[in-house]
């Protein structure tokens, strides 16, 4: 159990000044699990002013002072040092109104959310575990410290945090905690969108997201009510052997652990229940891509995602079902339409979608491995387009606006229109991307007018 030198230094410095200090929370959990913590938090008996005095000569930030936290910058890393505290009364299922500083470690550990996060570590005396956190790590259990109902009433974000830790760590939520989650899930409505989205991102990119999405779908549905109709919605099509939600969850698990791709899979079919028709002995979801796109935009906006995430996810949702033809020409069109990064993402999205569909759809439809091979081929063709520096955007076109003006095209809208026509012809392989050839074509077309 190796504690980094900086952390030892912080603890020793506080002790030299007459205070207690420990590493605490997620970093201790990670150490017990044999993982490398991404950051180290310290708790101490020192009051914030005393902590500041102990590190007088160092860079400190007092941004979290209201909650007793001082951030210390040391060798390029930030360390949050927080005074032992209990949380004052909670009035709105959110943050405490005020915090109260306390004298001992056990009281500080008692205010923490889960037993696995209520551990402290000291370089000499080792681990302090007042609530059975080590046992719960061993048995892979998420359990509230104290009465779960009270703890979720205090701060309903803990409901999302429980799901997040279950998804990231692959732990089971202990029955009493799980019952309290189900019973109090509506309290999530009191939590700000930003805090919810931060936990949702971690949940979705967790290695065990599929299990959590399956077991806690009705909790997620408090945040995203559009999920409810998906659950149990039978598709009645040969493409699927799962209901809409089952397919969605499976597709999430088959996407890389990347937030854009996972959000896309979560939302790609969200419009299906609104688009269902039944004819010819089969279910259909005509137009579900566009409906899913619009619903996704609304959901992501309500969760206060940034514009770039919203733009990318809705683009991928819109095109998730589009056919990708295996020609340079078709892929140049795609590159022009959504750009390289998103086209590569779209291929991942389609892969995840296929992995969550039936393997054998119908005798005349390619099997799953054949559909996947097609996508691999598409990736190769994209590589070739770049290798051969084929033109698919205005910036690669061998002529620009100035060339057209010089060739006698009147300034204004006509220039843009002509460039765009030329680009389309180059993308479609009707004209070679060479300056003389393009100008020749322009002159010829002008002469014919
Ligand atoms: P990660 O590894 O993702 O950083 P973490 O356990 O460190 O996980 P943080 O959100 O960084 O989680 O919080 C640090 C610690 O503060 C937690 O381990 C927990 O002890 C405590 N904590 C954080 N949020 C809450 C909360 N809402 N209620 C109670 N305790 C909390
Ligand atoms: Mg942390």
Write the SSE topology.
Layout: H1 5-16, E1 21-24, H2 26-32, E2 41-44, H3 48-54, E3 59-64, E4 69-74, E5 77-83, E6 85-87, E7 99-101, H4 105-110, E8 119-122, E9 126-129, H5 133-138, E10 141-142, H6 148-154, H7 157-169, E11 172-173, H8 175-184, H9 193-204, H10 209-215, H11 217-223, H12 244-254, H13 259-267, H14 272-275, E12 277-279, E13 282-284, H15 288-302, H16 307-319, H17 328-355, H18 368-387, H19 401-406, H20 413-427, H21 435-448
Parallel strand pairs: 2-5, 10-11
Antiparallel strand pairs: 1-2, 1-8, 3-4, 4-5, 6-7, 8-9, 12-13
The structure holds adenosine-5'-triphosphate and magnesium ion (MG).
Adenosine-5'-triphosphate is lined by residues 25-26, 41, 112-113, 117, 155, 157-158, 161.
Secondary structure class reads: alpha+beta
Unique ligands: adenosine-5'-triphosphate, magnesium ion
Q: Rg to the nearest angstrom?
A: 28 Å
In total, the number of strands is: 13
Query: How many helices in DSSP terms?
Result: 21
Give the overall shape: globular
Largest sheet: 7 strands, mixed
Our estimate of the beta-strand percent is 5-15%
- Spatial strand sequence of the major β-sheet: 3-4-5-2-1-8-9
Low-confidence stretches: none
Q: How confident is the prediction overall: mean pLDDT?
A: 95
Helix content: 40-55%
Distance between the termini: 81 Å
